[in-house]
Amino acid sequence: MTWALLVVDGQHAAISQPVLGRIQQLERAFRQTGERVYQVESMAVDQLAPLSPVGGTLYRCGTDAFSGSGLQRHLQDAGISCLVICGSGSDSAIDASVRSALYRGFDVIVASDAHQAYPRGSLSAQAIAEHHNQLLAELVIPGRVLEVLPSEEIIDIVRDEPVLAQAVGW
Length: 170
What we know:
Largest sheet: 6 strands, parallel
CATH topology: Rossmann fold
Radius of gyration: 15 Å
Strand content: 15-25%
Structural class: alpha/beta
CATH class: Alpha Beta
């Protein structure tokens, strides 16, 4: 299995320091083990510098990371079959990117504590992010694997990849 980290809207100025810290820890773990990291940003933030410039940043023109970004071609060219997804917009860009990746034939691991929502009405950002973790954990796409795991567990798996298949039920 070949996998990569996908950071969606990881440069959003409103990302909390704890979430940003976990995104950066995931980036470091993936890079240190020679795994690929893809960053996809909304066209609205294209003037910002990437968190980690290695490999560059792709820009999307829709809600999900695949929309107009060329991401699918990059992943297919690299032979990627599984994505670890984190970033901002739990109830928008993250949710849409997870679903799009699954429907495009990728397995997905959602970093449950490395994505952030923004408050909406009486709903807190934390409540929205937790709700989407629950929704995604219950999603079933025949033939695809979807796991929702904390970033610390993902980092442990990255460092000991041979146990990945067992950890996510393959």
